[in-house]
Amino acid sequence: MGRGDGGDEMWRGGAEAVLNLQPSASISIAYDAVFDAHSDLLLLELDDKLLPQIMQNRVTIRGEPDEEAVLCTPSATYALKYVGTSNSAFLIPPSSGPSSDVSDSGPVKVASAIKLAPGVMELVEVAPRLHKLKELLAENPYRPEEDSMEELEENDGLRRLRWEDLVERVQASDEELKGALKDISAVEINGYWRIVDEKYMDMVLNMILHNLVLNEWSLDGFEEDQVLGIMGSDGFPLKIVLHCLEIYGRRVNLTDDELSGGRCLWRLDEKQVCVHFARVILRGGKMKMERFMDEWMDKIPAGMSADFEMLEGQVLVENIGMETWIWAFSVSSLPSTPAERFAALFQERQKWEWKDLQPYIRDLRVPGLSSESLLLKYTRRTQPTMDAEPVFSTR
Amino acid sequence: MQIRVKCECGESSCREWAIVELQGVVEAQPAFQDQIQNLEIGVLCRASSQEKYTFTVGYHELSGSKVAMKKPLLVLKKKKLLDSEDVPGSSSNSSKIELEVIGIIRHRILFKTRPRALISRNCTLAGQISPLDVDATQS
């Protein structure tokens, strides 16, 4: 027999000898001494472009025991699909010696197969599975009571999640998870990812606006230090005030000179602020359009102007008889997977015109599916006449 | 939970494994079924400088060729880590699993044809092939 059957080696192997078999040569393929004992081996098929990610240890498999596992690179998510085979694929490892140059000790006569490959795991790029993220964080939103109890937080029995906990539970790549945390306005407080209670955010925003007016600071350029100082003396945690500015404001780009002076300027984002107040007003439910518009205009801070277009994807409007009614229907409150999203949309309304539907589906991303094919898959399109607007209903 | 896919070898030095693949199954003679360890499955022969191969199993001969995989296959080995290795942020007390890349498969020697009977040769002990789509015809 060939080299390598010294007994104490794990596999006699010989992949090199098989792959480099010379013309007119032959090699015996044999069952290994421990054939079929290797249930711990898996085969993973992957694109060459993903190889560097794996080789640099940047890939993990995520999911809870009851979920279909996904493989995550730093920026993308792939479903793992098991593909079986009825062929017999004998798996032959390289010989276990340190160097395996075939020529150094004469031709190898035997290569050992250690098992039949059972099948292959294939990768299919998928949208990240983020629906759980919001549920997890919504269980325990940050409330004002916590402002003063930083120390005893661990003992109240409520769930708090660090980044490490999120990647254990949510099936998304790091990059997708970070994007999703930003989308739902989550913030890291004392090492834990939280969403802040909506009413609390409303109070902080109103307080900031109040202070801007009181001190005659401009909505379009106020100093971070000054606002933090005054809000801090009112007892608001600076982390929460900054979070509020991140959501409802933008940093103003400064010249290098101004930056070197340590100044940091913010301006409030008109659209974000106006949408916020519309949501606050509509929290009570459906209302008549006239009354809504009156209350909305009333709430908008001086110096800002609200435009109904801002509420795209936030509200629905319906004419009932002579009256127009409006209610909150926010895209951010809807499921993020296409099937569930469309189900929720058609539950709200049986028929959708394109201009109404579009704001509620444009954020859906499914690898390999365009938005046209999404519409084809989940809706029925009707067009009463050639020049009429198409209407979408459930399939 | 999260399972790390670890690779210590690096792309250039990842060792290549081979696959010899045929249709159907290879069955050992009944007398050997419980002790196939070290038993010869067949003899792989490369007749010429082309990448054409024959695989002789018992008194059957298969013809095939070496083909590059469209996508490479990684060979992963499941490893259990004990919790004493102190994984930061771990919320469970169970042992962690890691997948280690121990090889890569870029080629296989594939036999897609049905076996040809080699009447003149003696039957070796190793066995016979019973293709899935054909009843075993040998007695």
TrEMBL record, chain A:
InterPro entries (UniProt xref): Dcc1
Keywords assigned by UniProt, alphabetized: DNA replication
Gene Ontology cellular component terms for the protein in this record: chromatin; chromosome, centromeric region; Ctf18 RFC-like complex
Source organism of the structure: Stephania japonica
Protein name: Sister chromatid cohesion protein DCC1
GO biological process, any: maintenance of mitotic sister chromatid cohesion
The family this protein is said to belong to: Belongs to the DCC1 family.
UniProtKB/TrEMBL annotation, chain B:
GO CC terms, sorted: Ctf18 RFC-like complex
Signal peptide: none
GO term, biological process aspect, one: mitotic sister chromatid cohesion
One Pfam family cited in the UniProt record for this chain: Ctf8
Alphabetized PANTHER family for the sequence: CHROMOSOME TRANSMISSION FIDELITY PROTEIN 8
Name of this protein: Chromosome transmission fidelity protein 8
Species of the source: Stephania japonica
